[in-house]
Write a structure and sequence with these properties.
By secondary structure, the protein is an alpha+beta fold. The chain is 37% helix and 13% strand. The strands form twelve sheets. The chain has a seven-stranded antiparallel β-sheet with strand order 25-24-23-22-28-27-26. Strands 41-40-39-38-44-43-42 form a seven-stranded antiparallel β-sheet, covered by helices on one side. Strands 3-2-6-5-4 form a five-stranded antiparallel β-sheet. The longest helix is centred in the middle third of the chain and has 31 residues. The termini are far apart.
């Protein structure tokens, strides 16, 4: 029973305290006057009666009523029912002015007429702990009525009765009360007091705000946001607040709750804690500045959520379901709104019923949210009272809602904590919610989506709720007197009388006395065990198919684990990657923990090292996907296992698994440890009581043992039921037992935590947790010692015991962490203080002991052999290439090229790959295997020549997800490769340093002699012996030795150039190199000393003949072009315009020119010397090519110095004072140019002239041209032929302006000037006809650099003209190339590769430069083709000049488009004319600063562009260009070393091959190498080659026509770059014979080809290569000598032509071969795929001797059958060659030794010999049947001199003795063995 009302208070206006604006209230009377003991009088009632402040009014207002709620210090709510009416103030009021303060004075002026009367409010207040608003309204109304209407009832009696009325709190009683004024009221109490009473407030709230808004408020309240209601009605504020609380049931709101906040307390709104508060709308403005409060305006129906507040909403699908259910309840018409015949009546529930239905929806919502919550409760103590904890992580994990904001916040909230405390108890009375969550969840799941059923369920629940509030439907009528209408307006109303305290008090005292004598009413509580409902797992079966799908995975996990424990390691290894992938799934992780559990016997499982390693890796993989919360209980399940699995390191020292799985955040999360602890405690306490019951009832309960299945909660409720019946001692004993259980667990956990928190190496401060609880940053760098204490600890000697280890930061940290944990759990679970103190003492010792054992373990584990990592694969090396540094284990990281990392095209990620990096004398090689297990068996190779390294920088990379940041290197090469490597932990940092030093030494040798092309074959000692690494050698000594070795091998200091010669050239045993060269280069006596100025005299080695020079490429070419022969000057015909001058044979005039030069016939040698001074680097103009048709010549020179032509042009007509030096040279120069012009046949008739200077300056300069720019094409042959000149043949890729290139367009006026003067009038506005094909043109155009030719005035008298153009310098090329490399090989993955690539490509401006070069070249070609000579004189004459001159020749002369011709072109223009390869390629230390400038590469790119546009004009393939691009910087060959012929001669490179046998293995010249390869396979050959005679090519040079060369972008990871043939050809795939015989069943030979992995051209060769290859294989099979591919090809082409002629029409097959397809010439982008490393023809490049001979006995023509077709390509004689090679054979008596080609034929049992390898006619046969013996022979007369005498052997037959001599000893041995084996076989 409880009092209906505790206090009755009368509050009035306080006239004494009127402030400036607001008055104050005062309590006039209160009853009873002394506080109840159980319920003190609440403070501040006078504030709450008038929440808006006490104010006087000028008129009477009607009485008001509302209920305010006050919360006391014990968070008990007091309901204050306030009934307010107005009374006139006594007339004494106006006299009180002086007292009243300023406020009143101010008021007077504003109200001039003093009102007659003011009214003050007065309140009757009832204070109660029960919320019976209606009863209070009636009772206070009754008191007011008695007063107003003056009823004859004593107010004291009524009030006394009111205060003494007692009613039952719950139980659904009905009580009628009367206050003794003839009134009657019926009070119904709710059935269950746990369910809130809402009458119709919830329904009203939804009416006011709508569904969405209320849901927002609901979620905001649950997630602890601040909520403020605004309304102008106090009663509505109270109702809205009450409704919100009712919706939150079963959670109780535990923060500030003030439904009506008085004005004086408004600052409460800025409190930091959450609240639900109501405020009157008049204070709305005050609420504006609240930034974090959700404001609900009840009157306006809005909810305003500030920007900074994020309200987490309900998880879907619950949110949607709740919305739908609410709209069904609130708006039943919605369902039928669309029906054609809507039902006439729709039953709308009453407001009260609707209210309950809404609450039913929310009740269902909570049941769904919290379903299965009881399964996550941990009961830690049962006695003396239950202590219960909720395992939040497990709950979220099982529900699959770990990511859900809303639920997480709710579970962390105060309301939920209260819920657990209140509802967690296992033995208590239960209410509607308990039943719903236990029994109805299944039903709710089943009904999901069925609206009718859901609505039915809602109505059922609503009924129950309604019944709870109104248990008795037939309510007896209330009878309460109400005042008469309008009574408040009566004028002469007496004030409310002062009540007599005595009377009231007397009534109260009597009633209390009566109560004390009455027997106490015992409330019979129905306690019972709370039902738990189905476990979550049973409810959450929505992912059924996912389970089925993962069954296979679980099988894999189980198998792998059983393999590990059965020691089948290979099997386990195979399954392992699959297991690691499966670990992403929760089921697999659970399965792993269960399986491992099975293998633990008696808490211990000792494994061997490999098993241990597997188990650890699985555990780590399992844990790495766990969050710190461990919501799936994986870490919890592993916790007992990590202390169970162990391995023996040495006697007495065991390493447990926990020391290897510490790197996970979960171990640092204190909540995880608490949950684990409570879980274990619960199990132990359950066991405690289970054992008890077993002992007691052992006999009775043996038949059926149901208690096995009892959960802890069930046991607890049983115990709680028995508790009151137990004796005091028994109770104490149980309490004691429980307490000691908890205590022992606490000790256990202190140990466990120290296991997982103390790192194995405690000296290093390798703490995950160095900064607070497991924050993620500290995980990543857990290897980094990041505190002073860590480093201090390292410096201590670890053996020295406790004291200094104490100071280790780690120990202190761990002790603090464990102390924190122990404090928290022990206080929560009621451990006694003594025990707690004991624990605090123990913890440091536990930690310390553990540190000691760890030290031992750490020491031992250091000694373990490292885990087997993948074996390092050795790279294949070239002949003569040696390893400088053994492989360092590294990871190759992806570098932004998409494909390899499994990028946009998909495919498995080949990178990152794990392997080793090797440094050889020639290359840097990475070889390894991808870390992704799916492609683990592929081999990844990436390499590049050291010489091509352009940039090396240190980086830090995270090599693998589960590893730490490692140091690495990024090496970039100008062959467009990038090695981004991360060193493995096992690589010491100084090994990496040494690697860098060696790399640097090899990249920049002191002198060009140090490059690979020279050092090849002189084995350096290895810098790093591949000896087994000692466990821990002192690093200092190691690095000392390494550096010493390095100095010895690589850093051979070249003390003097004379002394040191690499052994390879010590052919004559001489050390002094230059002096001894006389026998090699015979001295020439005819030297004209006069030409040599004393300063340029050279070493004696310069006494050389012209003979060698004649053999140089230039000379051969000059003779081909008819530019002069080298005969004596007398016989030279004077008619020839040019002669070959030997003026530079000593390289005296110009070091960078060749020895023989073409100059005009009329110019004397001594003139030349003078002229040369005008030009930079003395590079005076020389002729390098002549057009055979127009006889125009192409000249090249360096740019001019200040004086020279420019001077000559500037000051020509100025009077000169005497012939100065400058003048004479200018004149000589003029003479020189004139001589060139005179040599041209057209010179005579070139009377008129045209100027080109304007044309090109506009054409080539990048200056903007304004609006007059027009496009002009430079070819209209019609116009030319009309003028009667022969049309230049060939094609013209017009220099059209396109897009951004428009600045190069021609200016109209210049165009018309070009077209000739007579065109000016007619074509002024139109596009001028390009009439510079007309005879008015200069005979010689000098193309020079605009910047040098400033101020040049064209002079009408000269026959030459200067064309100034703007070109880019080398600096720009370098910069552009750097950007190009970055674009093609970015270095780090970008977000949007496609866009980034194209953008950076454009920014590099590489294509713009190519465009420029092609443009100038095409211009020059055009001029030459029209018969004008051109002198290209740009920069120093060796970069752009060379590019332009070479391209011009390539475009104009088809000869240069053959393999032979291109070689000649490069040798002549690039090598002989001194392009500075060494300098531009930064090949030596000297060039390091200048960096790499790819001038030659740019030229090759231009050739590639032309090749793409004219695929049929070139004999060589694209691959040939790539091959040159790669090797001109690789330093594998000597061809492209050094800067000029002069330097090459000085080093003895040029002529060293004369007079000595070329060394077999190493090709010093790239050209020899190419020839040799080309003989063997058609890789450099272009099958589409079908040239037109004399074709001049004019490629388009617009950027839109240029393509990015695939050389820059492609790569082959299967074998590395394909340009070192021996390596690429390492393993041709064996061809299975079975396929060929088994024609019946078709067998698939499909291969998967990855774009960046496989060598496309090899794996799928083009059709022709494939046919040639098959032909070769067939020939081999039939035992014939395979024919050379070139011969075969030529025959096919020939027969193709004849066939075509016979048929008379061209068949498609002949299309390829036939020439003359002029309309098809320009490529449409369809051509044969370039044959890269084409075929698997047998290519042994060891020596000449293995190349195969080509018998040709085919007869073309005629009607061919298959057999003739076949025989055409094969020899008639079928041969079997078991072994073949070259031997010297001594002829018959008195005949000399001759080399012969011998073939050993096992089948025919004979030894045949031929004249040469190519020979088809057999010269003789030795029948092996006749052989008697083979013996070692001796050299006889005339035997080869150089051969070792052991290489001789004799073959004795029955007829004669044959004397043989092999090339070397092994060769001889080989032959002897082979012949012996043949003999023995026979």
């Amino acid at each position: 029973m409880a009092r209906l009302a505790d206090y009755f208070v009368l509050v009035g206006y306080d006239p004494g305290k009127r402030g400036s604006r607001d008055g104050q209230g005062q309590i006039l009377q209160r009853f009873p006057e002394k506080d109840w003991e159980d319920n003190p009088f609440p403070q501040g009632i006078e504030l709450f009666c008038q929440p808006s402040g006490w104010q006087l009014f000028t008129e009477r207002n009607p009485p008001t009523f509302f209920v305010a709620v006050l919360t006391d210090i014990n968070s008990e709510r007091h309901y204050c029912a306030c009934f307010t009416f107005w009374e006139p103030i006594e007339s004494a009021q106006p006299q009180s002015h002086p007292r009243n303060g300023d406020g009143e004075e101010e008021e007077e002026p504003s109200s001039p007429v003093q009102p007659a009367q003011l009214f003050a409010p007065k309140s009757l207040v009832l204070v109660s702990r029960l919320d019976h608003a209606e009863v209070f309204r009636n009772s206070l109304g009754l008191i007011y009525t008695i007063y107003v209407d003056g009823l004859s009832v004593s107010l004291e009696n009524v009030i006394g009765n009111l205060l003494t009325c007692t009613i039952p709190i719950t139980g659904g009683a009905q009580r009628t009360i009367s206050l003794g004024a003839g009134d009657r009221q019926v009070i119904q109490t709710p059935i269950s007091d746990s369910l809130p009473v809402s009458s119709c407030s919830v329904a009203l709230l939804f009416r006011q705000l709508g569904i969405t808004n209320v849901l927002y408020l609901f979620c905001a309240a649950l997630t602890e946001h601040k909520i403020l209601f605004l309304s102008s009605s106090y009663q509505r504020l109270t109702d809205a607040c009450r409704a919100l609380l009712a919706l939150m049931f079963p959670l109780k709101y535990s923060f500030t709750y003030v439904p009506i906040l008085p004005a004086q307390l408004l600052e409460v709104l800025s409190t930091p804690t959450p609240f639900i508060i109501g405020v009157h709308s008049i204070f709305q403005s005050e609420t504006q500045e609240l930034l974090d409060v959700v404001i609900a305006d009840l009157d306006g129906g809005t909810v305003n959520v500030p920007e900074c507040v994020h309200i987490s909403l309900l998880p879907e699908p619950l949110l949607q379901q709740t919305r739908e259910a609410l709209s069904m309840v609130l708006d039943p018409e919605l369902e039928v709104a669309d029906l054609a015949f809507p039902p006439s009546t729709i039953s709308v529930s009453s407001l009260k019923m609707q209210d309950k239905e809404i609450r039913a929806v929310f009740l269902r919502l909570f049941a769904q949210l919290l379903q299965g919550y009881r399964w996550c409760l941990h009961i830690i103590r049962i006695h003396p009272e239950p202590v219960i904890r909720f395992h939040k992580a497990a709950f979220l994990g099982q529900r699959g809602l770990t990511e859900d904001d809303f639920l997480t916040k709710v579970l962390e909230g105060m309301a939920f904590a209260g819920f657990v405390t209140e509802r967690g108890a296992p033995y208590r009375s239960i209410d509607l919610f308990d039943e719903l969550v236990a029994y109805e969840v299944k039903r709710m799941r089943a009904e999901e989506g069925n609206k009718q059923k859901i609505l039915r369920h809602i109505k059922e629940l609503a009924e129950k709720l309604y019944k709870n509030e109104n248990p008795y439907p037939a309510v007896t009528m209330h009878k309460v007197q109400k005042p008469t209408e309008g009574c408040h307006l009566r004028l002469h109303q007496k004030p409310f009388p002062r009540l007599d305290e005595g009377t009231v008090q007397w009534i109260i005292d009597q009633a209390t006395a009566k109560l004390q004598t009455a027997p106490p009413a015992v409330k019979a509580e129905k306690k019972c065990m709370v039902p738990s409902g189905p476990p979550i797992a049973a409810i959450m079966e929505r992912n059924g198919n996912a389970l089925a799908n993962s069954a296979r995975r679980l099988e894999v996990v189980r198998n792998c684990i059983s393999y590990v424990f059965e020691n089948k390691m290979l099997e386990a290894k195979k399954l392992f990657p699959a297991v690691l992938r499966a670990m992403k799934g929760r089921a697999a992780r659970h399965c792993l923990t269960q399986e491992l559990n099975l293998h633990v016997q008696q808490n211990r499982a000792v494994l061997d090292h490999q098993q241990f390693d597997f188990i650890i890796r699985m555990m780590n993989c399992c844990l790495q996907d766990c969050t710190a919360m461990d919501e799936h209980g994986i870490a919890a399940a592993l916790l007992p296992l990590v202390t169970a699995f162990c391995r023996k390191l040495s006697p007495g020292i065991t390493q447990f698994a926990y020391s290897c799985v510490q790197e996970h955040v979960v171990w640092t999360n204190i909540q995880f440890w608490e949950a684990m602890f409570y879980c274990d405690v619960q199990n132990h306490i359950r066991a405690l009581y289970l054992d008890n019951s077993e002992e007691n009832h052992a006999d009775e309960e043996s038949p059926e043992e149901p208690q096995e299945a009892k959960s802890a909660l069930e046991i607890a409720s049983e115990q709680l039921r028995l508790w009151p019946t137990m004796s005091r001692e028994k109770q104490q004993e149980l309490i004691q037992k429980e307490e000691s259980t908890v205590f022992s667990q606490a000790i256990h956990y202190a140990n466990r935590m120290s296991y997982l928190l103390l790192p194995l190496d405690t000296s290093k401060n390798r703490l995950l947790r160095s900064s607070g609880l497991g924050d993620m940053e500290s995980v990543s760098n857990s290897f980094v010692t990041n505190s002073i204490a860590g480093s201090v600890a390292e410096s201590y000697d670890t053996e020295s015991g406790f004291e200094d280890a104490e100071s280790s930061d780690v120990a202190n940290y761990v002790v603090r962490f464990i102390n924190r944990f122990v404090d928290k759990v022990c206080t929560e679970s009621g451990v006694t203080n003594e025990h707690l103190k004991g624990l605090h003492v123990m913890i440091p010792d536990i930690v310390q002991m553990h540190i000691e054992t760890l030290d031992a373990v750490h020491r031992e584990s250091k000694r373990l052999p490292p885990i087997q990592k993948p074996k390092l694969l050795r790279p294949n090396l070239l002949v003569g290439e040696e390893c400088v540094m053994e492989g360092l284990r590294v990871y190759l990281m992806p570098d932004g090229r998409e494909e390899a990392a499994g990028g946009n095209i998909g495919g498995p990620p080949l990178l990152p790959a794990e392997g080793a990096i090797f440094l050889t004398t020639y290359r840097i090689i990475f070889k390894g295997t991808p870390t992704d297990p799916l492609v683990g068996e592929q081999v990844v190779i990436r390499s590049f020549p050291i010489a091509s390294l352009t940039k090396e920088k240190k980086i830090n990379v995270q090599a693998q997800v589960d590893q730490f940041i490692q140091e690495g290197l990024q090496l970039r090469s100008c062959t467009f490769q990038l090695l981004k490597i991360a060193f493995d932990e096992e690589v010491a940092s100084d090994s990496a340093e040494i690697f860098r030093k060696h790399l640097h030494k090899l990249r920049y040798p002191q002198h060009v002699r140090g490059t690979f092309a020279f050092t090849v074959g002189q084995s350096p000692k290895q810098a790093m012996q591949p000896k087994a690494k000692e466990k821990n050698p002192s690093l200092r000594t190691l690095s000392k030795n390494l550096v010493k070795n390095a100095k010895k091998t690589i850093g051979r200091q070249y003390v003097t150039r004379k002394k040191y010669t690499p052994p390879m050239w010590e052919q004559r045993g001489s050390q002094h190199f230059p002096e001894d060269n006389e026998d090699e280069i015979s001295v020439s006596e005819e030297m004209d000393r006069s030409t040599l100025t004393p300063t340029t005299t050279m070493k004696p080695s310069d006494k050389m003949t012209i003979n060698h020079l004649v053999e140089r490429a230039c000379c051969r070419d000059y003779q081909r072009l008819g530019l002069g022969t080298l005969s004596s000057s007398l016989t030279r015909s004077k008619s020839e315009p040019f002669r070959i001058s030997t003026v530079n044979r000593m390289y005296a005039i110009c070091r960078s020119y060749p020895g023989l030069l073409i100059v005009p016939q009329s110019i004397q040698d001594n003139t030349i010397q003078r002229i040369s001074r005008c030009y930079r680097q003395n590079r005076f103009p020389v002729v390098c090519w002549r057009n055979s048709r127009t006889k125009a010549v192409l000249l090249r020179s360096g740019g001019l110095h200040g004086k020279g032509v420019v001077g000559l042009f500037k000051s020509q007509n100025a009077p000169t004072a005497g012939p100065s030096q400058a003048d004479s040279t200018s004149l000589e120069q003029e003479k020189y140019l004139q001589a060139v012009i005179n040599s041209m046949p057209h010179y005579a008739d070139a009377s008129g002239r045209n100027t080109l200077s304007g044309f090109t300056s506009a054409h080539m300069s990048s200056s903007g041209l304004g609006h007059r720019a027009k496009v002009i094409t430079l070819s209209t042959p019609k116009c030319a032929s009309a003028k009667g000149r022969d049309t230049p043949r060939g094609k013209w890729g017009s220099i059209r302006a396109s897009g951004r290139m428009s600045s190069y367009a021609l200016n109209v006026e210049i165009g018309s000037r070009l077209a000739g003067k007579d065109l000016l009038g007619t074509h002024h506005n139109g596009t001028a006809e390009p009439g510079f094909l007309r005879p008015h043109r200069a005979s010689l155009y000098i193309i020079g650099d605009k910047s040098q030719l400033k101020g040049v005035k064209p002079d009408p008298l000269q026959h030459w003209e200067v064309v100034p153009i703007e070109v880019f310098d080398v600096r720009q090329v370098k910069a552009s190339f750097k950007k190009l490399m970055k674009a093609c090989v970015p270095g780090c993955p970008s977000t949007d590769p496609s866009i980034a690539y194209l953008r950076s490509l454009e920014e590099s401006e590489w294509l713009s430069q190519i465009h420029k070069i092609l443009q100038i070249s095409v211009l020059v070609v055009e001029l030459l083709d029209m018969g004008s000579s051109v002198l290209v004189s740009l920069e120093d004459g060796w970069d752009i000049t060379t590019q332009v001159v070479s391209l011009v020749q390539l475009l104009s002369d088809p000869y240069y488009r053959t393999l032979e011709g291109f070689r000649l072109l490069v040798e002549k223009e690039w090598l002989s004319f001194g392009h500075r390869f060494s300098h531009r390629g930064a090949q030596t230390l000297a060039g390091q600063s200048s960096g790499f400038a790819p001038i030659f590469l740019q030229f090759l790119d231009c050739v590639h562009q032309i090749h793409l546009q004219f695929p049929m004009e070139f004999e060589f393939s694209q691959y040939y260009l790539k091959f040159l691009s790669y090797h001109y910087i690789s330093n594998r060959f000597r061809t492209f070393l050094l800067d000029s012929d002069y330097e090459r001669i000085e080093l003895g490179l040029l002529y060293e091959e004369k007079g000595e046998r070329k060394s077999q293995q190493v090709y010093k010249s790239i050209w020899d190498y190419i020839d040799r390869l080309n003989k063997k396979a058609p890789i450099f050959f272009n099958y589409m080659y079908a040239p037109e005679d004399g074709e001049v090519l004019r490629p388009y040079s617009n950027i839109s026509n240029l393509k990015v060369w695939d050389y820059y972008t492609e790569e082959t990871l299967s074998e590395g770059p394909s340009y070192d043939w021996e390596l690429a050809q390492g393993q041709p795939e064996p061809v299975e014979d079975t396929d060929r015989q088994d024609t019946g069943a078709p067998q698939t030979k499909r291969k998967i080809i990855w774009p960046c992995y496989d060598n496309r051209s090899r794996v799928e060769p083009d059709a022709i290569s494939k046919l040639l290859e098959e032909l070769h294989n067939l020939e081999m099979e039939l035992g014939q000598i395979p024919e050379r591919w070139k011969d075969t090809w030529d025959k096919v082409k020939a027969s193709q032509r004849t066939e075509a002629r016979q048929e008379g029409s061209r068949t498609p097959s002949s299309l390829l071969m036939s020439s003359g397809l002029s309309h098809h010439r320009r490529s449409l982008g369809v051509y044969l795929q370039e044959s890269g490393v084409g075929s698997t023809l047998n290519l042994s490049l060891d020596s000449d001797t293995s190349s195969t001979s080509t018998p040709s006995s085919g007869k073309p023509g005629g009607r061919r059958s298959t057999s003739t077709l076949y025989s055409q390509f094969h020899t008639s004689e079928s041969e079997n060659r078991s072994y073949e090679g070259s031997l010297y054979k001594k002829g018959a008596f008195m005949k000399p030794w001759k080399p012969r080609w011998f073939v050993l034929d096992k089948t025919k049992h004979q030894l045949r010999y031929y004249d040469s390898r190519m020979d088809t006619e057999c010269k003789g046969v030795i029948d092996l049947a006749e052989v008697e013996s083979i013996t070692p022979g001796t050299p006889t007369m005339g035997a080869p001199k150089t051969v070792d005498e052991k290489a001789f052997f004799d073959l004795k037959t029955t007829k004669r003795v044959y004397n043989f001599c092999a090339q070397d000893v092994p060769g001889a041995q080989q032959w002897i063995d082979r012949i012996q084996s043949c003999l023995s076989d026979a």
